[in-house]
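User: Structure with alpha-L-rhamnopyranose, tokens only please.
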Amino acid sequence: MAFTFQINEDVVWDYDKKLLERAERNSPELIDTTIKPIGIVELIPEEERTNDFELKKSSKSMLDLPEYSIGREESLILDLGDHYVGRLSIDIQSVGSPMDAPLFMKVKFAEVPSELYAKSEDYDGWLSKSWIQEEFIHVDVLPTTLELPRRYSCRYVELSIIDTSPKWKVSFSNPVFTAQSSVAMSQLPSVEIEDSELKDIYNVSVKTLLDCMQTVFEDGPKRDRRLWLGDLRLQALANYYTFNDMSLVKRCLYLFGGMTTDQGKIPANVFTEPKLTPDDTFLFDYSLFFATSLYDYFIQTNDYDVLENVYPVARKAVDLALEQVDIMGRLKLTEEWPVFVDWSNDFEKDTAGQAIMIYTLRRMIALAEVYSDPREFHYRQVLDSMVDFSKKYLFDEENDQFIIESSGEINVASQVWMVLAEVFDKEQNKKIMQETVKNHFPIRGIATPYMYHHVVEALFVADCKEEAVKLMKEYWGEMIRLGADTFWEAFKPEDLEFSPYGSPILNSYCHAWSCTPAYLIGKYILDN
Ligand code: RAM
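Assistant:
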């Protein structure tokens, strides 16, 4: 079962005006920060670079910028010194004879160098090419201040001249990038992390989270620039250990709570512009993560007001999912409501799906208890049957590994989610994870920090701390060694050019679900 475009035109939406009003009341004021580029950089010819994440410093400095004029087919790249989300303005002057033709130029924004090496015209993937952060602009009269209306997510700004005229060239000055986020670094609690590798990983995680925290927790400020439930769950967890911005979490819970289907299905993502709109895309596990995110929020805050308002939404969503659990305690997944688990389609996801249902039920029971919902009893019964079924039919005792019932397949996701669901006790979980490390490490074929997050957390939960830290350093640490300022949506250490979309130019390089080391370090290392 895979994630593809879904078009579900016949869905009937239930808008809960009260919850949506609450969502809007918790909308943040964005904080602006003025950023000036720190330097000029240049592309490295293919035969001289080791990978597409490298650039070299130009011999020209920012002080030379106003004196540096360029014409047809020439370009320069400004380096903001770090990754930011915001708007650009820059002064442009003509240099030489009178301006006898318009200026025609291209401005390309890149989060990482590989987007600069990739040629936009070669992109032929399945996601819209409109995500490529590139503008073609005519300017009739110079000098002018070019103020681009769109928001970009980038570290590099490439200014390419398509044409001036043989009589004149252009120079640029006063580039200003106005960065924005709903939080500021000054809100961070100070933490002492002695291990320098972990400290770097923590810092990049925090920057990733900050850049994704806009008027909602965005999945990626370059793409898709919207609120996804699976990403929200992880961002909220990282937020509790860092910025601790409760009102943005509240806003996002209310947004999902206020836009569900008449059956009670929660959409996988929502849009907030031009008006609050649910996407007609549904993922089985993402829908369940509404309840688990509410649980996480309540554990942090004890905020009964939010619980009281959205508990009925969580219950309806969980109950709908439970309709797919048979009398024996087996979850039956369908193509119509696919489970995501990871971008990869190379492994079977039924056992991971079963575990996510168990993981959710445990949290739903805790919520039902606080809400004094008599349905708690029913949830306990289903939980028991699902756990029994998993132990009896999905566990291979000889190998200490979970299997896929229909095929016997053993994969990483099944082990990891069953450990997170705490189907067995710590001791058995440890055996499962040790076996997983023995048979499946180094991990191959998994391309998302999303799945790697769950592997690391399962290692911590199963008391395999050393392996957890090692994997975090190998995976997130490797992105830093490649130059990451923020963590990426997709990363396969064994294939640096991997993209789920057909080209790295569409990948998001500041992506919500990759910010979790801040949470993992906070919860399992600093708090212990
Ligand atoms: C992509 C985004 C998002 C993720 C979904 C499933 O479109 O990367 O973060 O949650 O897929």
